[in-house]
Design brief:
Distance between the termini of chain A: 31 Å
Order of helices and strands of chain A: HHEHHEEHHEEHHHHHHHHHH
CATH class of the largest domain in chain B: Alpha Beta
Strand order of the largest sheet of chain B: 6-7-8-3-9-10
Largest sheet of chain A: 3 strands, mixed
Shape of chain A: elongated
Mean pLDDT of chain A: 82
CATH superfamily of the largest domain in chain B: P-loop containing nucleotide triphosphate hydrolases
Number of domains of chain B: 2
Low-confidence stretches of chain A: none
Number of strands of chain B: 14
CATH architecture of the largest domain in chain B: 3-Layer(aba) Sandwich
Radius of gyration of chain B: 23 Å
Strand order of the largest sheet of chain A: 1-2-3
Shape of chain B: globular
Number of helices of chain B: 11
Oligomer: heterodimer
Number of helices of chain A: 16
Low-confidence stretches of chain B: none
Helix content of chain B: 25-40%
Radius of gyration of chain A: 33 Å
Largest interface: A-B, 30 and 37 residues
Helix content of chain A: 55-70%
Structural class of chain A: mainly alpha
Number of domains of chain A: 2
Structural class of chain B: alpha/beta
Strand content of chain B: 25-35%
Number of strands of chain A: 5
CATH topology of the largest domain in chain B: Rossmann fold
């Protein structure tokens, strides 16, 4: 077997089979699961709401309010004020209504502990109002049509428009605007990039630092070239990352298909038009996502190779983490101000592009040339970073120094220079 | 056969290895000694092509030792390390695969090697569950299991108890009999004396001793005399050619002579009254030579 594959397979296998990986996969799912569970209980809890009591001698009223269509939950056992008061005192009911109908005039009193007025009170009011309208209509000998004509509401509709380059554009008012949908997606992408970058940066830095710290590195580098080792590790770790992404994609699709059947999700989907996430938006975002992870993982591998002891690995990757945090906040700023000059500039800085560019694409304020330039810039920077990291990697892993990172880099540089001179002599 | 020719490596102003020459034919063992920082590890790294020399070259069977020969190398670095969370078996297979062996080549031999080095533990155990000594044995096995032709051991004996050191010596001798070229460094001169066919001592990157153990010792002359006699220390000190007398037991002494020739005369004197149990005239021990050479100023 090719040694590149041996290294790739080993670093992949070791990580995917680790408990940490399984926890990493499950943790977000568990959190989402808990979130959904809480939501489910909250929505169910409404059904557990307390019933109300209706005290009225008018049988018509009783029948009207008791019918299932009204949506009221009525405790039919309570028929007297005394009983109702007792039940309210024991907090068995939300409240009670006393209703009297005299001369086609409905008089009702609703007693409850809720200061703000409950949906039940509102419901009662409207039900009884229309009941009284019916009574009065009959008294005035109006036909059913005439009553309906009198009570029909006015036509009132709202229309939201956006202004683009002086032109008014009508948006479908029942839907969230496309830019907002895309912006939301960009927000999710930004968070995902940040999580993946920090996770996989630390994994690869740990891998390399521990091999260097335990001197396994020397044995490996006397077996294979540093290039083979570097790329074997890198690709192995990136495959772990892709495994995680694919698992989420599969789980996501299954969940989407299942959840679509739930009413709540249906409602949400009816106002969010996923069609607004065009193929180009998704394509470019995914490309930036993958490039971003690759770029940061390479950087982390480089910094990891400077460490002498595994304990120092977090210190070593902190510059990478710091840039990632800055990029993330840049993205959050772009979320709110996609047109700001700083955002426009940062979106072309390769280390920040993956965080910021999706927001600009979402806001539709960048030309396709601009996007192409930023993609090429990020790609070139990634290639360059990989090349430099690889050059220094070999000398980095042979330097054992307990002093700070800067000195380690200096020593590594002197080895690198002497190596280069010697190589040229050959 | 490994040939190291005029190997020189500088880091900035420091010359870590300075014109080092030696040859290790197949089936022989070379001991590399020297104080810490004398250039042993750098020499190993230069041989392994982890570093490129400024000058000189390393030849393996008359060709530069390059990546294609990596599979024939077994290397034990000075500081030991394994993957703590990986099982013995997987670890040994992984390292052997990096040396170009397949899983099928190695798997059947793991038990045999663990038996040979008397490793306490099952091959399905994770390395971190083993004692330090057993971990070291696993690393030795991973250095040797692919039957390398060139074996480089940096301080292989450090941390081993005498019983395990014997096991390692046996392992090294077996590799020698297979025809491997072996180079190792050690601070323990007993191991060096027992194992080495050839000895090289470095000081500040330069070779200060080079030859067989016997020749190196002999070139210092037989100026050490181990003696068991009822004679008094003062009597011994008064004898001609005696530089120093060290009493090592009630009737045992170690004498330093100004020149080997005085041995005969001293033998006559101490055997005047007949039989004595010990009269042993020896060159200085390697350890003494080591200390002597390490302390020497530049000539």
């Amino acid at each position: 077997m090719n040694k590149f594959w041996v290294i790739l397979k080993e670093s992949y296998r070791k990580n995917v089979q680790s408990v940490g990986f399984i926890v990493m996969i499950l943790a977000p799912l568990i959190i989402i699961g808990i979130g959904l569970g809480v939501g489910y209980f909250v929505s169910n809890a409404e059904d557990d709401s307390l019933s109300i009591a209706i005290i009225s001698k008018n049988e018509q009223v009783q029948a009207l309010l008791s019918s299932k269509e009204t949506g009221l939950k009525i405790d039919k056992d309570i028929q007297s004020i005394a009983k109702a008061k007792k039940a309210l005192g024991n907090e068995e009911i939300e409240g009670y209504a006393t209703i009297e109908v005299t001369d086609n005039v409905v008089e009702a009193e609703y007693v409850s502990t809720d200061i703000q007025g409950t949906p039940n009170a509102e419901l009662l009011r409207s039900l009884l109002t229309s009941y009284q309208t019916q009574l009065k209509g009959k008294e005035l000998a109006l036909s059913q049509q005439e009553i309906e004509a009198l009570t029909s509401p006015i036509q009132f509709s709202e229309s939201i428009v956006t202004i683009k380059e002086g032109v008014i554009k009508t948006e479908d008012d029942s839907e969230i605007p496309g830019s907002l949908v895309r912006n939301g997606a960009a927000y999710l992408i930004s968070i995902a990039i940040f999580i993946f970058i920090t996770t996989y940066s630390s994994i690869i830095a740990q891998e390399i630092a521990s091999e260097k710290g335990t001197r396994i590195m020397e044995v490996i580098l006397s077996s294979v070239s540093s290039t083979t080792h570097f790329f074997g590790k890198l690709v192995g770790i990136l495959l772990v990352c892709l495994t995680q992404i694919s698992l989420y994609a599969i789980i996501g699709v299954i969940a989407f298909v299942q959840l679509k059947k739930i009413n709540f999700v249906k409602d949400v989907l009816s106002i969010i038009d996923l069609g607004q996430l065009t193929a180009s938006f998704i394509g470019i975002s995914v490309a930036l996502f993958l490039l971003g992870i690759f770029l940061y993982v390479v950087l982390a591998a480089f910094f990891g190779s400077l460490v002498t002891k595994i304990e120092d690995v977090n210190k070593a990757v902190s510059p990478v983490a710091f840039i990632a945090v800055a990029g993330f906040y840049g993205g959050m700023f772009a979320f709110v101000n996609p047109d700001h000059l700083i955002v426009e500039i940062l979106s072309f800085v390769p280390l920040f592009t993956p965080f910021i560019m999706p927001f600009r694409i979402a806001a539709d304020n960048i030309s396709s040339t601009g996007i192409a330039i930023s993609l090429v810039a990020t790609l070139s920077f990634t290639v360059l970073t990989t090349w430099i990291s690889l050059l220094l990697y070999r000398s980095n892993v042979l330097v054992y120094s307990d002093t700070n990172l800067f000195k380690t880099m200096k020593r590594s540089w002197s080895i690198f220079k002497s190596e280069r001179n010697s190589t040229y002599k050959d | 056969m490994l040939e190291v020719k005029n190997l020189t490596k500088t880091f900035g102003d420091l010359t870590a290895v300075d014109a080092v020459d030696f040859t290790i034919p197949g089936g022989t063992i070379l001991g590399l000694i020297g104080q810490n920082g004398s250039g042993k590890t750098t020499t190993f790294r230069l041989i392994l092509d982890l570093l490129h020399p400024d000058e000189g070259k390393v030849l393996w069977n008359d060709k530069p030792l390059s990546r294609s020969e990596y599979n024939q190398v077994g290397y034990l670095p000075e500081e030991r390390g394994l993957y703590p969370k990986v099982t013995i078996e997987k670890q040994l297979i992984y390292f052997a695969q990096l040396r170009g062996k397949s899983k099928k080549d190695i798997e059947p031999h793991i038990d045999e090697w663990m038996e040979k080095f008397k490793v306490k533990g099952k091959k399905t155990d994770k390395v971190k569950t083993l004692s330090k000594g057993n971990q070291q044995k696993i690393q030795l096995i991973s250095t040797l299991i692919h039957n390398p032709k060139l074996i480089i051991l940096d301080e292989p004996f450090s941390g081993l108890d005498p019983v395990n050191a014997d096991l390692l010596e046996k392992g090294i001798m077996e590799a020698k009999e297979r025809g491997a070229s072996i180079i190792f460094s050690s601070h323990n001169m007993n191991n060096v004396e027992e194992l080495c066919d050839h000895l090289v001592m470095l000081r500040d990157g330069k070779i200060v001793l080079n030859g067989t153990v016997h020749n190196i010792r002999e070139q210092f002359g037989r100026t050490k005399l181990y003696l068991e006699t009822p004679l008094e220390k003062t009597v011994l000190e008064a004898m001609p050619g005696v530089k120093e007398v060290k009493q090592t037991g009630s009737q045992t002494y170690t004498l330093s002579l100004t020149s080997p020739e005085y041995g005969k005369d001293i033998f006559q004197r101490v055997t005047q009254n007949g039989y004595i149990t010990t009269f042993d005239q020896q060159p200085p021990t390697l350890e003494e030579i080591f200390k002597m050479k390490a302390g020497d100023k530049d000539e």
